[in-house]
Amino acid sequence: MKAEPDRKWWKESVVYQIYPRSFKDSNGDGIGDLKGITEKLDYLQDLGVDVIWLSPVYQSPNDDNGYDISDYQSIMEEFGTMEDFDEMLAQAHSKGLKIVMDLVVNHTSDEHPWFVESRKSKDNPYRDYYIWREGKDGREPNNWGSCFSGSAWMYDGQTQMYYLHLFSQKQPDLNWDNETVRNEVFTMMNWWIDKGIDGFRMDVISLISKPAEFVDGKAGVEGYASFSDAANGPHVHEYLQEMRQKVLNRADTLTVGECSGVTLEEAKKYARSDEKELNMVFQFEHMDVDADEGNKWTDKKMDLRDMKEVLTRWQKGLEGVAWNSLFWENHDQPRSVSRYGSDSREYQEVSAKMLATCLHLMQGTPYIYQGQELGMTNVPFGGIEDFRDLESINAYRELTEQGVYTQEEMLKYLRYKSRDNARTPFQWDDSENAGFTEGTPWIMVNPNYKWINAKDQIARKDSVFSYYKELIRLRKSHEIIVYGSYDLLLPEDPDLYVYTRTLGSEKMLVICNFSENTRDFTLPGWCQDSANIVKLIGNYGDAGIDGSMRIRAYEAVALLCKI
Ligand code: TEU
Ligand code: CA
Hints:
The chain has 563 residues and is of the alpha/beta class. It is built from 16 helices and 20 strands. Helices cover 27% and strands 16% of the residues. Helix 8 runs parallel beside helix 9. The relative contact order is 0.10. The chain binds 1-O-alpha-D-glucopyranosyl-D-fructose and calcium ion (CA). The site of calcium ion (CA) has 6 residues, from loops. The site of 1-O-alpha-D-glucopyranosyl-D-fructose has 13 residues, from loops.
């Protein structure tokens, strides 16, 4: 007899990520804003999600769209005011929606007053807030590359030393080994908690504790080494436990750590179920199955067997000891329907629903990235001038200048993998600019808004939107979806992702076809007695249940069986 599930509200919730710049513009300047979000809370309530994760809304010079923060306690002017924020928070709460803030504290903007002070002199009181090192033999302290091209070290003429920036030059890394820095961060977090927010998504939190020595790594094609050695550093768990005690324990929060470079073993520590650190982490292994030996700039398609291996290892590995977060998309990833399904007119809806089924019925808290619930697709960008993301623009420049790729090749890879695919305006309706703005949008609108938009899908029972609603509703009425244990069937099948969930005397069978091939599938012995089978959901309305089933292109079906 298995123990009762360890019930938590954040396990039973569905989180919706908003990228404010691209969600809804309320004043015609072409940039999404807080008032725009407030206007659309009813839409989210209708969808049925419980929690909103807001990408950064703090004051920022926008080198990296808000992930470079110059004041943690004020709102980016383009997005509105603190009054607008308070209004949004109050309205959200009155509709039963929680708000989780993006916490970006691995680094600040170089325009943050701490850094402005820090770079002034070696004896400035803020010097030790950041990571300064002497050069080595007239060069950078080590050979790490930044995530956004070039060295991870920037020479500063003022004091003739280098500062560390794992991301852009305008994102200097904070020195978490300095207790004063930690206390500043905790005080700021408590200020937000006191405002009534409901949790934090923690940007690259696995990177905050730096190694004692910066040794060279193995250089890649551009001559720099990956800074992956900086992940899960020596004191990261200590610092998060301190954060738990000084901040998180003061409220009933949802916490999710973005953990690039996290292994399963590490994740068990971050997301440990005794709640000493975080509730869950975003792992990235499944985002790498279609990379080319770690290189993101390729149009290689994944092998479904690799995806199943990774996700199954995480499903089984965390069960009972930690908690998974489930995602196909966020603001850093291309659109899943273009990446793992099909964005053709014929299969866009059905494959978007299949992907939703596959993800939402696994064990973990599902995250929906804005527009995913419509099956929004990648974008037909033209030349490099259509892109806005600094990662994409820098990579284009660096890799074409070095002759690694031609311009045409690089544009092809960007159209497939650029983060900007996720950042074009939300498609509200089929009016000009997809109903996102009355002005000129800051980034192009995907021209397919004429046939992919919320207005059309809200009205249609068979839309991707309605399907998401149904999946969320099912989660609220079937404990097995939240707490059932997971097992994979057919690990070697290249087209079908089939798994089961088990809780008490119930078993759920989830069958998802990731291909256009029609496949025969024989139901397992425990799911043969039609009197004991209920179809929970499926993306081909007509599908009947039969001992041997035909699974059509991108078909998904979930059956609940009494055992
Ligand atoms: O991302 C960090 C990260 O590890 C990656 O997802 C990385 O940005 C991506 O692989 C590049 O393609 C976080 C934020 O989500 C991202 O938007 C920020 O740019 C970054 O940190 C720096 O704050
Ligand atoms: Ca605006």
